[in-house]
Amino acid sequence: MGAQPASDRPRWLSIPAAAAWVSVSVKTIRRRIATGELRAYRCGKSIRVKTDDLEAMMRPVPSAKDW
Fold this sequence. Notes:
It contains three helices and three strands, in the order E-H-H-E-E-H. By secondary structure, it is of the alpha+beta class. The chain has one domain. It has a three-stranded antiparallel sheet with strand order 1-3-2. Strand 2 and strand 3 form a beta hairpin. Helix 1 crosses helix 2. The radius of gyration is 13 Å and the shape is globular. The N and C termini lie far apart (27 Å).
């Protein structure tokens, strides 16, 4: 996910590509769009998601060191 430099990664992804990008299901991406957790944009009949928005959706998981 964040391993590629910003200039090498795509800016816009389809819903299936976005799901593959963050290793979740298409249903999860659609659910996050429906709840407003992830912003999506319509371009004609297709829906696109920004890779920056996908990365912003991710949250760190606390570890034992954080307690």
